[in-house]
TrEMBL record:
Pfam families, A to Z: Cas12f1-like_TNB, OrfB_IS605
UniProt-recorded name of the protein: Transposase
Species, as recorded: Okeania hirsuta
PANTHER family: RNA-GUIDED DNA ENDONUCLEASE INSQ-RELATED, TRANSPOSASE
Keyword DNA-binding: yes
Gene Ontology BP annotations: DNA recombination; transposition
Family: In the C-terminal section; belongs to the transposase 35 family.
Length: 259
C-alpha cells in the first residue's frame, strides 16, 4: 500500500485502496464485494439510487438479435457482433494445450493457467462492452423496447441427431457449432442488462411471445410464410415486399405492441 493513501478495510485480510482522485457519490454502501478475475482485483459497491429518466428520441423500437449481426433495430440501426470467442478460439485452444502439458502443481503450469485466464477475461470483457453499448443506447433513447423471448438454454443444449444428420469425420456437428455461436453472442446477458437499464432510465421492456413468428410475417402486408434459417432476404409471396430478414423481424416486433 502507498504510504499516504487512504483505504477501506473490509476485513483483516483485505485492504482496498481508495485513490484520492476517485469521486464516491455515496458514503454509505449496502454491500461491498471483492473479487479476483485473472490477474486483477475488483471491488464493487451496492447502494440505493433513484432512477434517472432520460428524454426519449423514439417511442417504440423492435430489436431482433442474431449471430451474424448482434442486433438489428426497426429504425434500421445495426449492431455488429464482435464474435469475441470466435476471434480468440485458436489462441484459447493453444493456451489450453499448454496448460494440459504442464506438470500439475508446478510454477510453469500456474503461469500457463494465468495466461489462459487473462485471455478468457479479455474475451468476456469485449462481449460485455458491446452489450453495454447496445443496451444503454436502447434504454436511454426509447420509451418502449420490444425483444423476442428466446429460449437460450434450449438452443445451447440442442444437438444434432447422429442417426439423421451426416457429420464429416473430424468436424463438429452443425448444431454444436450453432450453440457455440449463440453462447458467444451473450443473449441472456443482453436481456439481463436491458431489464435493469430500462428501470434505470424509465423505459418499458416488452418481451414478445416465444412463439410469435416475427421472421415469417411480412411487415408490409401481414402475410405469413415459411422462412428457413439459410434464407437471409424476406421476399413476400403475397405483395412482393423485399427486405433483409432481420430488419423485417425487427419491424414486426415493433408492431407487436400495437396488436
Amino acid at each position: 500500500m502507498p504510504r499516504h493513501s487512504r483505504a477501506y478495510r473490509t476485513n483483516q485480510k483485505h485492504w482496498v485502496e481508495k485513490f484520492p482522485h476517485l469521486l464516491f457519490v455515496h458514503d454509505i454502501f449496502l454491500n461491498v464485494r471483492i473479487s479476483k478475475r485473472a490477474n486483477n482485483w475488483y471491488i464493487s459497491f451496492k447502494y440505493d439510487n433513484e432512477p434517472t429518466h432520460t428524454a426519449k428520441k423514439r417511442d417504440v423500437i423492435g430489436v431482433d438479435v442474431g449471430i451474424n449481426t448482434l442486433a438489428t433495430c426497426s429504425d434500421g440501426t445495426p449492431f455488429a457482433n464482435p464474435k469475441a470467442y470466435q476471434q480468440a478460439k485458436k489462441r484459447l485452444t493453444r493456451y489450453q494445450r499448454r496448460v494440459n502439458k504442464k506438470k500439475f502443481g508446478s510454477k510453469n503450469r500456474a503461469k500457463a493457467v494465468k495466461r489462459l485466464a487473462i485471455l478468457h477475461k479479455k474475451v468476456a470483457e469485449i462481449r460485455a462492452d458491446k452489450l453495454h453499448q447496445l443496451t444503454t443506447w436502447l434504454a436511454k433513447n426509447h420509451s418502449t423496447i420490444v425483444i423476442e423471448d428466446l429460449n437460450v438454454s434450449g438452443m445451447l443444449k440442442k444437438r444434432c441427431d447422429p442417426a439423421t444428420t451426416s457429420v464429416a469425420p473430424g468436424s463438429a456437428p452443425r448444431h454444436h457449432k450453432l450453440a457455440s455461436a449463440i453462447a458467444d453472442c451473450g443473449f441472456y446477458e443482453f436481456k439481463r442488462q436491458l431489464t435493469y437499464k430500462c428501470e434505470w432510465y424509465g423505459s418499458e421492456l416488452v418481451i414478445a411471445d416465444r412463439f410469435y413468428p416475427s421472421s415469417q410475417i411480412c411487415s408490409h402486408c401481414g402475410h405469413q410464410q415459411k422462412m428457413p434459417l439459410s434464407v437471409r432476404t424476406y421476399e413476400c409471396s403475397a405483395c412482393g415486399f423485399t427486405a433483409d430478414r432481420d430488419f423485417n423481424a425487427a419491424v414486426n416486433l415493433e408492431n407487436y405492441v400495437s396488436q
